[in-house]
Amino acid sequence: MRTMWRWRRPEALAAAGLWLAACGGFGEVEQGMVVAAEGEVLTVILDSNPGGEPRYDRLPPVRVRIPDDPKQMGPAPAAGKLLDLDAAAGRLSIYDETRQRIRVIDFELLQRTGNVYSDDPRVRDGALPRVDEQNRTVTLYWPRTRELVTIRVAEEHLRLPRDAWKAGDEVRYYFKDPGRALRLMNVSKTHLR
Question: Is residue 97 a part of any domain in this protein?
């Protein structure tokens, strides 16, 4: 007489659940915008609207160590403090590192050019952002909508650091320990076809 193991679906699911629990379980995924990159540690403002239009406004920022294995990460993310730009409303938001808060800045839109891609000569090679203190204007690139804009701001804002007018790369990362990414995808520089 042969004895045979017969697994039923509930038993198989319970066994799989126990195996996963013993192996540490599943991790989590977060998405955010990089506001600082220091060696192997990124400072990221997280998205408060997962599953919808990204809204990078979850404070305090988190510090995340990049994966140890370079194969688990795409292109290195660039940092910038520009979190949002609404050209129609004449408002943008930046991360103010000194005060550890998000600042909203009103502006007058002077020029707006759409369909500008990141490999456009006007955008690449560090040409932007361009601050003109005499005319109180800033020309910057907003990658989410692929727009090149020139805006006029109050004089007090012209003294902000140059990276305040630059959008950081959007990243998505998988982790089990919140301060250490096991996998990291640079959403801004990954072109899925």
Answer: yes
Is 3 within the bounds of a domain?
Answer: no
Asked if the structure places residue 66 within a domain, the reply is: yes
Task: Name the amino acid, one letter, at 72.
Answer: Q
Q: Is residue 178 part of a domain?
A: yes
CA atoms of 49 and 65, how far apart (whole Å): 23
56: containing domain: 30-189
What does the pLDDT look like over 86-140, one tens digit per residue? Answer: 999 999 999 999 999 999 999 999 999 999 988 888 888 778 999 999 999 999 9
pTM, whole model, 2 decimals? 0.82
Q: Which residues have a Cβ under 8 Å from the Cβ of 149 and sit 6 or more positions away?
A: 85, 87, 109, 111, 112, 113, 139, 140, 141, 142
Contact 63, 43 (CB under 8 A): yes
> Which two tokens mark 156?
């007090």
**Domain tally for the chain?**
1
- Give pLDDT tens digits for 12-60: 445 444 444 445 568 899 999 999 999 999 999 999 998 888 999 999 9
